[in-house]
From TrEMBL:
Domain Histone deacetylase: 22-313
Alphabetical list of Pfam families matching this protein: Hist_deacetyl (PF00850)
Domain of life according to the entry: Bacteria
UniProt cross-references to CDD domains, sorted A to Z: HDAC_AcuC_like (cd09994)
Name of the featured protein: Acetoin utilization protein AcuC
Record flagged with keyword Acyltransferase: no
Record-stated family: Belongs to the histone deacetylase family.
BP-aspect Gene Ontology terms: acetoin catabolic process; epigenetic regulation of gene expression
GO terms, molecular function: histone deacetylase activity
Keyword presence, Transport: no
Amino acid sequence: MSRTARVIWDDALTSYDFGPGHPLAPVRVELTMALARELGVLDKVETAGCAPASDDELAMVHERGYIEAVKRVSATGAPDLSAGLGTPDNPAFRGVHEASALIAGASLAAARAVWEGTAEHAVNVAGGLHHAMAATASGFCVYNDPALAIAWLLARGATRVAYVDVDVHHGDGVQAAFYGDPRVLTISLHESPRTLFPGTGFSEETGAEGTAVNVPLPAGCGDAGWLRAFDAVVPPLLREFRPEVLVTQHGCDSHALDPLANLMLSVDGQRTAYAALHRLAHETAGGRWIVTGGGGYELVQVVPRAWTHLIAEVAGHPIAPATPTGEEWRRLARERTGETPPLTMTDGRNPEFRSLSGGYDPGDPIDRAIMATRNAVFPLHGLDPMP
């Protein structure tokens, strides 16, 4: 399906490091790239480097005073709580500006490649830092690279950009950046804010002309329910909105093994979502697809396999689920983490779901969440909320 796919990568992207014991450990992206390399996925794509985002580029989303505050923390390592740096979630560290600006620059490079047509799809697995706000760090995120990629597209004349966020946490920073802008459709599927950070993302948060869409799912939701919700909300809205570019965030912390959240997806269910978004990029956005990573805190069992599947999907060469992970990669994973790595690229699941078109069950909390979202936003897009 893909024509030209590009992976934006620089080994320095692993310098975004909040220190020992922090859940957002850079080894997760290191092991992702190593697994993708071992399985031949990187042979199927172009790989390109990136430059750090400039202050002017960062200022498309972030306040100048905040950028200066991050630079001061970066130079000294001293906390600045007014900027959200120096908390348990966002520890202060020397070099934080440079590391964060490079991740932002990688997503801007992906946006540039897709908008200018040098690549049809582009992916930055180190990106997806969707919680950062205009003037504060939040939720392990300093600069909001997906929002910056979208703002860059708008500045170059894009009039309709869609953003789909499948991280287990609400994509609050991206939503906030464009909440009043009907040119940007943001869709976030996440665990209910009643049980998980950041406490936002209720279905009634609908933004300008219904262009903020939230699907809060109950704790314990697995592959079948999650895919049912995705199918009931995302394809109809993308088909109606017809974006010029599709931007997606792929936090894999929705997995059952993730230590920070309570959804129950498998790698196989996540892989199914990646394939669906790939098809929708071609169907609704002319194939223009910008892809980022995101959350994911099971560093060996989940993140490398999920995002290697993601890169392979972006490349148009999906990996068979039963593919072995490879002895060299398993050796590296053991050396870097001390953990026993998985043997294959599957959790052994065969994700299936029932479409909402067959009717909904008002007694099912997943169906109630789906219908709350459809009732809140579908009429604003001229769509019938009833299945």
